[in-house]
Design brief:
This protein has 4 helices and 5 strands; from the N terminus they run H-E-H-E-H-E-E-H-E. Strand 1, helix 2 and strand 2 form a beta-alpha-beta unit.
Length: about 150
């Protein structure tokens, strides 16, 4: 386990990993007036490709996001990064699983996705891996939003 900026670290190492976990790394760049149009360099297509390149053959890249806005950015970026690795867009969902915390609906404004988890694999999820992941999510108080084959 390393406690430094994930993108900088991954660019310095030649190591391969079973899991790369990035927790709550997305920042609200729009809150700072001077940074309203800045790109979060930790979650660009190039960064995602760097992370995936440092995974073992069946490795997993996991993002714990703040909310559904970050979730959308992560999934869209993952699809493009996988496309750049030669995986057709139509097949990209086979490489991605999405979960959320099991929380009661918000009192005002309906359901909100709190701290979604996105897991991206170097290889497509097998049916067995998807079932095991979904079961583990339920056992730990999380709900699958999307898992391939399930």
């Amino acid at each position: 386990m390393y406690g430094e900026d994930g993108r900088n670290y991954i660019r310095k190492t030649q190591d391969k990993y079973d899991v790369i976990f990035l927790s709550l790394v997305m920042t609200s760049t729009s809150q700072g007036a001077g940074y309203a149009l800045s790109e979060n360099y930790i979650c660009t297509i190039e960064a995602m490709q760097d992370y995936l390149a440092h995974l073992n053959e069946d490795g997993k890249l996991a993002f714990l996001a703040h909310d559904q806005e970050d979730l959308g950015k992560i999934v869209a970026t993952a699809i493009l990064a996988l496309k750049n690795r030669g995986i057709p867009v139509k097949d990209a969902p086979k490489y991605i699983a999405i979960f959320r915390k099991n929380m009661p609906q918000a009192q005002h404004g309906g359901e909100h996705i709190h701290n979604p988890m996105v897991i991206i694999k170097n290889q497509p999820f097998t049916e067995q891996q998807s079932k095991e992941l979904a079961q583990s999510a339920y056992e730990n108080g999380n709900l699958p939003l999307f898992t391939p084959h399930v």
